[in-house]
Design brief:
By secondary structure, this protein is of the alpha+beta class. The chain has 8 helices and 17 strands.
Length: 339
């Protein structure tokens, strides 16, 4: 079966009539006008626990949500300067990493300047126009000697070397950022996913940069471009319908915390082997629900973190602490297998 035929079948699935209870469909302008800026409520679970929701709702200011296919159009890697100066060197020295944006050190340039820098590199190497946007920003503090510490999974701890912030390395005062970016396509952000939950693969718009100054940086840029538009504007489930889906998960005790709700795209539609070749995939409109869901327990078990559970949930917008709901069908992505 050809790739185009596969995508046509995927598109046709969006046209299959849903049950009457799921027929609350709207174009995005209507959805945006009806949705609250924040979802605030209290929901009681079957176990009698009260879950308080106070989460911002971010819906892009666009007039349409196309269903389309994109393909890889640019990829490059550059390293300038001493790589060990960027983040440190194994068990000898490390930079302090700051996830919480509030106490970021006073760096003389904002993260947005790095987007401009990445665009310059991409353009100078013949890359097509791409709307790069920050996805996660980590501040890098000065270099320090290391001390013995631990990293943690949800069940185990392991010895490791961590930055000793009381013991500066040769009085180094340089600072910088490590930033992960994605693309905005037709005004909609493309969420990144795939490094923690193998069922999801949406890293085609992943780019990153570790930057101290123009003499010391490492960057990787990967971008896509629109290849084919299947539908210029698909209707989405109403926000009321999304609230119903999330409320059901909360009542069942599955969804236990919501920090943020975002509408955007995921790149879906091909297995890993095919992606190594054409990197062509379909953009699926989805709701990204950041917070804590018991579905994520198996994911957490395989991740080591120097932070408490609460810190990465609050400050790491990657897929590790997100679930995704198909904005057209209401299904979770990936679907939970039947028991």
């Amino acid at each position: 079966m050809t790739r185009k035929a596969i995508f046509c079948i995927l598109f046709c699935l969006f046209l299959i009539p849903l049950p009457a209870s799921a027929q609350e469909k709207e174009h995005i302008p209507e959805l945006r006008s009806a949705a609250p800026e924040r979802w605030t409520c209290e929901i009681r679970t079957k176990e009698g626990k009260t879950v308080t929701i106070d989460a911002p709702v971010h819906i892009p200011d666009v007039n349409a949500v196309p269903l389309m296919r994109v393909c890889k159009n640019y990829e490059t890697y550059e390293l300038a300067g001493d790589e060990s100066f960027l983040i440190g060197k194994a068990d000898t020295r490390k930079r302090d990493e700051i996830y919480d944006p509030d106490p970021f050190p006073d760096i003389r340039y904002p993260p947005e300047d790095l987007i401009t820098f990445m665009q310059e590199i991409r353009s100078s190497n013949g890359g097509a126009d791409a709307d790069l946007i920050p996805y996660r920003v980590t501040a890098l503090g000065p270099m320090y000697h290391v001390k013995s510490g631990k990293v943690f999974s949800r069940k185990h701890s392991f010895p490791a070397s961590i930055a000793d912030t009381a013991n500066p390395w040769k009085h180094d005062a340089t600072r910088g950022y490590r930033m992960i970016t994605t693309q905005r396509i037709v005004g909609m952000p493309v969420f990144l996913s795939g490094t923690a939950a193998s069922e999801i693969s949406s890293m085609q718009t992943y780019s990153c940069i570790t930057y101290i100054n123009r003499e010391h940086y490492a960057l990787y840029i990967r971008t896509v471009t629109i290849e084919e538009i299947f539908s210029p504007d698909v209707q989405l489930l109403s926000f009321n319908h999304l609230q119903g889906i999330l409320t059901e998960r909360i009542v069942d005790g599955t969804l236990q915390e919501i920090l943020e709700i975002n509408l955007g795209y995921l790149c879906m539609g091909q297995d890993a082997d095919e992606q190594k070749d054409a990197l062509s995939c379909q953009l699926i409109p989805v709701w990204q629900v950041r917070g804590y869901d018991t579905y994520l327990d198996p994911v957490h078990d395989g991740i080591l973190s120097m932070l408490s559970l609460e810190d990465p949930i609050k400050y790491d917008p990657e897929m590790i602490y997100s679930i995704y709901i198909d904005a057209v069908t209401g299904e979770q992505i990936p679907a939970i297998p039947a028991v």
